[in-house]
Amino acid sequence: AGSGAGADMRTEISTAAAFVTRLLRASGGVGEEQLRCFRECLQEAMREHYKHHWFPLVPSKGSGYRCIRINHKMDPLIGKAAGMIGLSHERLFQLLPSELTLWVDPFEVSYRIGEDGSICVLYESPQPGGKAAKQLESRTSCKEEWRIGRSSPSKSYNMMTVSS
């Protein structure tokens, strides 16, 4: 299941890693080759970190664990990837927003810059096994209720026609 889970979170992880890489690129001073390496290292670190904390059926489960955060403290995953290309935490603080929260959840990646910033969605996809299945479930239960609700009156109605 390990590789399966990895494959499932590939889009979310690459979206998140590409976003942080874009932030670094925008601040300038980091070469393309370094950025590419940074992105790959960050993806790898995230994959490793999220491996047993990825629940497509309960996307919010483990959200705090997967949350990438810079808040006067460098997120360890970003710090690790930056270390691979020789960027110190001090340098990262100069290059990246001092307040950044990045939520990497199944089917949705979103971020907020600043503590009171608005939350922006970077990636959103319908849940293949999650929401859809839930909708179907509720749809069937609605249908059942509807059938149950409808069946009693129609039954008595039928009985009346039979009896008359």
UniProtKB/TrEMBL annotation:
<dbReference type="Pfam" id="PF07742">
    <property type="entry name" value="BTG"/>
</dbReference>
<comment type="similarity">
    <text>Belongs to the BTG family.</text>
</comment>
<dbReference type="InterPro" id="IPR033332">
    <property type="entry name" value="BTG"/>
</dbReference>
<protein>
    <submittedName>
        <fullName>BTG1 protein</fullName>
    </submittedName>
</protein>
<dbReference type="InterPro" id="IPR002087">
    <property type="entry name" value="Anti_prolifrtn"/>
</dbReference>
<dbReference type="GO" id="GO:0005634">
    <property type="term" value="C:nucleus"/>
</dbReference>
<dbReference type="GO" id="GO:0008285">
    <property type="term" value="P:negative regulation of cell population proliferation"/>
</dbReference>
<feature type="domain" description="Anti-proliferative protein">
    <location>
        <begin position="96"/>
        <end position="115"/>
    </location>
</feature>
<dbReference type="InterPro" id="IPR036054">
    <property type="entry name" value="BTG-like_sf"/>
</dbReference>
<dbReference type="GO" id="GO:0005737">
    <property type="term" value="C:cytoplasm"/>
</dbReference>
